[in-house]
Structure formats: structure tokens, C-alpha cells
Design brief:
Elements (H helix, E strand, L loop, with lengths): L3 E6 L9 H9 L22 E5 L20 E6 L5 E5 L3 E6 L4 E2 L3 H4 L24 E4 L5 E5 L5 E5 L5 E6 H4 L3 E10 L2 E12 L2 E10 L4 E5 L3 H8 L3 E6 L5 E6 L2 E9 L5 E3 L5 E4 L4 E3 L4 E3 L8 E4 L6 E6 L4 E8 L4 E9 L22
Antiparallel strand pairs: 1-2, 3-4, 4-5, 5-6, 7-8, 8-9, 9-10, 11-12, 12-13, 13-14, 15-16, 16-17, 17-18, 17-19, 19-20, 20-21, 22-23, 23-24, 24-25
Length: 367
């Protein structure tokens, strides 16, 4: 199967797996690689509503360059706007907007500055410091406001709109997180909720941190973190984080496996994790286990980046760097079972068509 340069899972509500997944699959946190979308691609009538853009040409391995992309030198993360355009976190250079219809950067973005980099005293955000260089984790609300975890200036969350204007800055003093490594926005019970995790230093020690903010109620909380969850976050062993559709569990892609922890909502619908591990899916031992049950699994490749389905319970999409695959996994938390429904990528379903000639409608995960 040809190399994947980008993909969007659009399961009705447009699940978005970012280019961050692609970096994990192929390059293991090296610089991002991309090129203009190949001819013949487009959002076709895909039965499972899953679109994969493919390319196998040699230029796939070159750093992005040329007038259309203005020499992007690395992609750390990406989100898709409601109009189909993209917001890209360019390594150490802030954020750019790509107009997908013409495969070019929007030169009018961020008040004609091309890149949103924020300001030391941003008048759009009550003179807060919105400066940003890089972001490994970001997500987008239904109103097209992007929230990005930023390491700069001791750690913060910077929010900006689709035009590149600052909307909000959530400081470390609010989140408690100096290095916001993972971030996801989930709609649970009709309310959009921000989940952020990472680590900080306190009393000369690394400590795991977890912050939750409910946009509907305007309430946020620094969640208590201890035990295995603290180890997962403070040692940065987790590469990705995702929340299930009902707010019952938080899952981490950690050391090639999936670890999950139960979530409990308070009166303000703030979903915080508990200290005890709920589930471990171990791809090395081919086992899935909870406190009381251990079952055997098979054919699940090592896991790095994960995202829980936005539309279907018990479905997780997982990317594997070593196996160069995207897997659709059915994970049953109650019965402690897991199985692969379909796999795409180098060791997945084959596609023999020439790059640039195949319609998007014919490139799909068909289960």
C-alpha cells in the first residue's frame, strides 16, 4: 500500500486523526513530511466515511518546500476546520492555515502575518501572553476555535480562531501543567470538555498533571494524580491520549500498549481520573487485562497514537510506528476483550492503483 501522507476519519461528525499520527507511524517524532494532495483525491462517497490520502512518489521523503507551502520545515500537529481547511502547527514557527482547495498557505491568516505566533501582550486576550512557537497537541471546538498546548513561557494553553486571532490563554497557574503534552476536546452529554495532561516540576521532582475544563459550565479543575497515572505522565511514557464517548475512561498510548483509567464526573461535569488502572492492552504479551480478568488478544500491532471514535462505542483507531499501520480496534471494557476489525497501511489491506489516479471513494477502510 502506498505511503500515507495524511488522513481524515470523518465518521459522520468528522473524526480527525492528525498528521501527528503520521509522524509517529513513519518517522517517530522527526520532522513532518508532506506535499500537495494528489490528483483524484477528494471526499468521496466512502461507505465507512473514512478517507485516506495516498502517495508513493520519491518527493514524499523531501521536506515541504515550494511557493504553495512557503517552505514548511516540520509539522508537529494539525486540525481540520469545518470548511475543510487545515490549521498546522509548524515546528518552532507557530501556526499556519492551509487552503486545501488550492493546496497553499493562507497569506491573510493572522492579520496578514501568515503565521499565528501570538503576542507578549495580546489585546485580543486581555493583554495576556499568547506567544507560541511549537505545539505537539491541539484540538478544535465545534465553533472552529483551536486549543493548543504550548511549552513556551512555562506552559500554557493558547486558543485562537480560524482567522488567526487570539481567543483565550489558559496559564500554567490554572492548569498546573508546565509541559502540556496531550490535549483533547470531547463532547460528552452535549457539553464540550477540554482534557489536558502532561507534567511539571514541584519540589524538585517531576509530577504528572491532569486538567479538565467544561466549556458549557465555565468550570475547570486540576485533577488529583497519583500511582500509575502519575508515572505515566511524569515520565512522558505516554505518546497520546483519548477519552471515550461517554466520559467513562481516559486511554493512553503508552510504551506500545493501551493503558486506561476510569473517569468520574463531579457536580460540574468535570471528569477526573482515579488512581487505579482500569485496563492494560499489552501488544508484547498479547494479553488484555483488568484487575480481575486476563484474556488473550491477537494480531494487534504495537500502538503509539490512539483516538476513540466520535460516533461509535468501543472503537479505537490506533497507529503503529513500527508496523506502519492504522488499526481499527474493537475494545470491550466490560468483558475485557479486544480485536482488530480492519488494518490499513504497509502491512494492511493492499491497494495496487497508481498514485494520483485512484478516487478517494475507492480508498477506504471497508469495515
Amino acid at each position: 500500500m502506498q505511503n500515507i501522507i495524511g488522513f481524515y476519519l470523518t465518521m459522520n461528525n468528522k473524526i480527525k486523526l492528525s498528521i501527528f499520527f503520521i509522524l509517529i507511524i513513519f518517522f517517530g517524532f522527526t520532522k513532518g513530511f508532506s506535499k500537495p494532495i494528489p490528483p483524484g483525491s477528494g471526499e468521496g462517497d466512502v461507505p465507512a466515511n473514512i478517507l485516506i490520502l495516498l502517495d508513493s512518489s520519491k518527493s514524499m521523503k523531501n521536506l515541504v518546500s515550494g511557493s504553495n507551502y512557503m517552505g514548511l520545515t516540520g509539522v508537529d500537529s494539525i486540525v481540520e476546520l469545518s470548511d475543510g481547511n487545515l490549521i498546522v502547527a509548524e515546528s518552532k514557527k507557530g501556526f499556519v492555515k492551509i487552503l486545501t482547495a488550492n493546496n497553499e498557505i493562507d497569506r491573510t491568516f493572522a492579520q496578514n502575518k501568515v503565521r499565528f505566533r501570538g503576542k507578549n501582550r495580546d489585546p485580543n486576550c486581555n493583554n495576556k501572553d499568547s506567544t507560541v512557537k511549537s505545539s505537539w497537541a491541539m484540538d478544535i471546538r465545534s465553533n472552529d476555535v483551536i486549543y493548543a498546548g504550548v511549552y513556551d513561557d512555562g506552559g500554557k494553553i493558547v486558543a485562537f480562531d480560524s482567522d488567526g486571532k487570539c481567543v483565550d490563554v489558559i496559564k500554567k497557574s490554572t492548569t498546573g501543567i508546565a509541559m502540556p503534552r496531550m490535549l483533547e476536546i470531547r463532547e460528552i452529554g452535549g457539553q464540550e470538555i477540554l482534557f489536558v495532561s502532561g507534567r511539571t516540576h514541584e519540589r524538585r521532582k517531576k509530577r504528572g498533571k491532569f486538567y479538565v475544563y467544561n466549556f458549557a459550565t465555565g468550570k475547570g479543575k486540576k485533577c488529583s494524580v497519583s500511582g500509575t497515572l502519575d508515572q505515566t505522565l511524569k515520565n512522558e511514557s505516554a505518546m497520546s491520549m483519548t477519552i471515550d464517548r461517554n466520559g467513562n475512561y481516559v486511554y493512553f498510548g503508552r510504551n506500545n500498549n493501551i493503558w486506561s483509567f476510569p473517569l468520574t464526573a463531579d457536580a460540574d461535569n468535570i471528569y477526573c481520573p482515579s488512581a487505579g488502572t482500569h485496563l492494560i492492552l499489552n501488544t508484547r504479551t498479547n494479553r488484555i487485562q483488568s484487575a480481575a480478568i486476563t484474556n488473550t488478544i491477537s494480531n494487534i500491532n504495537q500502538i503509539h497514537a490512539i483516538e476513540y471514535s466520535r460516533d461509535t462505542d468501543n472503537i479505537i483507531y490506533a497507529a503503529s510506528k513500527h508496523s506502519h499501520t492504522l488499526q481499527k480496534i474493537e475494545l470491550d471494557d466490560t468483558n475485557v476483550t479486544a480485536s482488530v476489525l480492519v488494518t490499513a497501511g504497509q502491512h494492511g489491506s493492499k491497494n495496487d492503483a497508481d498514485p494520483g489516479t485512484i478516487s478517494a471513494a475507492d480508498v477506504k477502510l471497508d469495515q
